[in-house]
Write a structure and sequence with these properties.
Elements: H1 5-12, E1 18-20, E2 29-31, H2 41-71, H3 84-103, E3 105-106, E4 112-117, E5 129-132, E6 139-141, E7 147-150, E8 159-162, E9 168-169, E10 176-185
Antiparallel strand pairs: 1-2, 3-4, 4-10, 5-6, 5-7, 7-10, 8-9, 8-10
């Protein structure tokens, strides 16, 4: 996913007058505007990164909205769920879909990371599904996954210690451990 220099310039300097000879070469910009300054290469690179993040989040929201639409029927009051637990699982899944964009960290290279706890699993394997934890701001291993972990996790690297409510604490008072892991959005 790449954005051309004209797309970047339009966002950085709306209404400015310029000409680009090569849509991928900063040096080819002919700046013709006297009311706005030509953006630096660094500004253009930063905007390129921002546009990529925005597109990634937009795509994620679009996929999420499709999944919400497909699961609407499970929230109808008279839908015949087999058990109350099955009903709650669908409600939790839909809430996780709505919360997802705010719980992921999108990195400069457009990879994503999330904090996952060791609730119900002391190790995680690449491909394990993650659901929203009952500890605010965290994921845990579970069914009806909205994201999947990339790589294995043994809760030893990039960790934080959590108390029973999910607040950070020291190792001596920890009830859970959370690790910052690579993940992918799981659509379906």
């Amino acid at each position: 996913m790449s954005f051309s220099l004209p797309e970047v310039l339009v966002r950085l300097r709306p209404g400015a007058k310029w000409k680009v000879l090569d849509i991928d070469d900063y040096e080819s910009i002919e700046w013709n505007d006297t009311s706005q300054t030509k953006p630096s290469k660094e500004e253009c690179d930063a905007m390129q990164t921002q546009l990529k993040r925005e597109r990634l989040l937009e795509d994620m929201r679009d996929q999420r909205n499709i999944l919400l639409d497909k699961s609407d029927k499970y929230t109808v009051i008279d839908f015949p769920h087999a058990t109350e637990e099955a009903k709650q699982m669908w409600l939790d899944y839909r809430q996780a879909l709505r919360d997802l964009p705010s719980l992921l960290t999108i990195n400069d290279d457009n990879s994503t990371n999330a904090w996952v706890t060791n609730q119900f699993a002391n190790t995680l394997s690449s491909g394990d599904g993650l659901i929203i934890s009952d500890l605010p701001g965290y994921f845990m291993k579970g069914e009806k996954a909205v994201i999947k972990i990339i790589g294995d996790c043994n809760f030893e690297d990039e960790i934080r210690y959590l108390d029973v409510s999910g607040q950070q604490t020291d190792e001596a008072n920890a009830v859970h451990i959370a690790a910052f892991v690579g993940c992918t959005y799981h659509c379906g």
